[in-house]
Amino acid sequence: MAPVLVWAAVGIFALIGCGVAFAAARGNTGRADDYYLGGRVIGGAISGLSYAATTYSAFMLVVLTGLTYRGGIGALGFELIYFSGLTLLVVFGPRFWLASREWGIVTPSEMLGRRYGSKAVARSAAIISLLFLMPYCTTQLAGIGLLLSEVTGGAITLELAVATGAVLAIFWTLLAGLRSVAWTDAGQAAVMLVAALLAVGFVVAAIGGPGAFVERVQAERPEWLDVPGPGLWALPTFLALSLPWFFFPLSNPQVSQRLFVVRDLGAMRAMIFWVLGFGLIFTLISVIWGFAALILTPGLENTSAATPALLASGAVPVVVALLLIVGILSAAISTLDSIALTLGSMTARDLPGRALGEARQIFVGRIVVVLVIAFAALFAVRQAAVVDQLAALSAAGLVVSVPAIVGAFFWSRGTAAGALASLVGGAALAIWMALETGISVFDPMLAGSVIAASGGLFVAVSLLTRPRPEALDFRGTLAPKLRAHGVW
Amino acid sequence: MTVFGWWLTIVGGLILSGIVVPYGILSGAPASSGIAVFWTLFALGVVAVIAAGIRGWRA
Asked: A biological process (GO) annotation for this entry (chain A) (predicted)?
């Protein structure tokens, strides 16, 4: 594909995005919760599309497509177990929202710190988020780099593509914080969905229509319709990848922080429906796209290149291919800027020894946004070949926050020492197992051990220690409010 | 059992079925789309239980 066409599409996308971000910036008041949470007045559609765009990243049309190409239908099951993790929002969504309103909480790590009455808990949760979300940021920029360089035959270099994505993410985040991020996310979600629907329609048509598509997959790749399929999706691997991803709505602060931003529970309900609709359609599209690549462009050695190969196959008109490139760019940037903003808010509110003023919180957050994205860009250029491993490792690492989160709302006996031991012990184990012993994220031993250790430490150490006097009683305080809102 | 208890049980069973049915029952069928169809129905089941879970929320 001609680089000039790709640059033109990216340029139009950037201009429209900047217009949306500038328009969104007009609502800002200069307060920290306004910058990081959009004043807590975001409606259902915008928060839902923003949540969806943050959750469904470049991973979908780069990595998940590649996993389908390599291993078949197991990729659909893996992604749908992840999708089923949205059931956690029924239980935890209103609790997060009510706690944030009741105590003026801005970040998920701050929520844990306030609940257990410990700054060390908030600080540890923030540091762990920084540590494990870095690889996840890197995969977004690596996805952009891989895509743009592959579709242009290297005319757009990996470095230039990564730099383009990084500059856009930094600018849109710095401009107006959550408002610009949420509004650009919503627009990007629409682009992602429309582009992917059009593109998958064209490739299925090129194969001969839905009936012919199914017949050809059944005839040419029957093993890919089964589990474990051609080898990738053995049950242990399936569990190793699915288990930590199931807890994504709780463990990943860039999405759990979205539960603080909605204006009321009606908006949260609408948000959840938007995420469900988007997630289901986008998952099916990504997997169909992977099977289509298998039919139209067989024999690829690097399965992460399935999407660029399909775009270059001639099955997709140039205009639609350009739209899909912008859609994937959107998916990556919307995830990246949300993560960077969340990490900025955690650094500004949870790491300093004493509370910073409103203006300083925003300033520190902005510096962190630039540093996070710059670091991710550097790492993406050097490590682009290990996209799958890095994305999965972040899920296995972040899951250590789940026991403390569940305990915050459902176990009054949980203590600061228990939460701290769970967070630090679980994270240390994840790092040791992955980096020192070389256990792969495709081995269920990694996620299973981390979850067991984190949960076990939380319960055992809590039973051996006492709750702090300054700990908040989430369960007791929120119970009448939950009843008033008709929440279980 | 409370309504919430029933809901949790159904959700647990649904998620377990998302693993057990494809790997334990449908695996090995010759050239079939059964697993793909099952997982699509599983996703619709997830939507249904979430819709049931948030139906009673009041703004």
From this structure: sodium ion transport
Domains and CATH numbers, chain A: 3-385 (1.20.1730.10)
Closest residue in A to B47 (Cα) is A276
pLDDT of residue B6: 96
Do the domain assignments include residue B11?
A: no
Residue B49 lies in a domain: yes
| Contact indicator for A73, A226 with CB cutoff of 8 Å | yes
Q: Give the whole-angstrom CA distance, residue A166 versus residue A372.
A: 10
Across the interface, whether the CB atoms of B23 and A276 are under 8 A apart is answered: no
Number of domains comprising chain B: 1
Separation CA A324–CA A338 (nearest Å): 21
- Which chain B residue shows the shortest CA-CA distance from A276? B47
Q: What is the mean pLDDT of residues A269-283?
A: 96
Which has the closest alpha carbon to A339: A169, A148, A481, A117?
A169
The span from the first CA to the last CA of chain A, in angstroms, equals 54
- Per-residue pLDDT tens for A347-396? 999 999 888 898 999 999 999 999 999 988 988 887 644 445 555 678 88
> Which residues in chain B have their CB less than 8 angstroms from residue A280's CB?
43-44, 47
The answer for A 167-206 residues in CB contact with B (under 8 A) is none
Q: Which domain holds residue B39?
A: 16-26+33-54
Please tell me which of the candidates A76, A94, A284 has its beta carbon nearest to residue B57: A94
CA distance A87 to chain B (A): 6
pLDDT digits (tens, 9 = 90+) for A187-240: 988 988 999 999 999 999 999 999 999 999 999 999 999 999 998 899 999 999
| Separation CA A328–CA B23 (nearest Å) | 32
Contact B57 A218 (CB under 8 A): no
**pLDDT value of position A383:** 63
**Is the CB of A80 less than 8 angstroms away from the CB of B31?**
no
Enumerate the H helices of A312-357 as residue ranges: 318-350
Min CA distance, B54 vs chain A (Å)? 6
B56, A77: Cβ pair inside 8 Å? no
Which pLDDT tens digit goes with each residue over A88-143? 999 999 999 999 999 999 999 999 999 999 999 999 999 999 988 977 888 888 88
CA geometry: angle at A52 spanning A338 and A130, to 5°?
A: 30
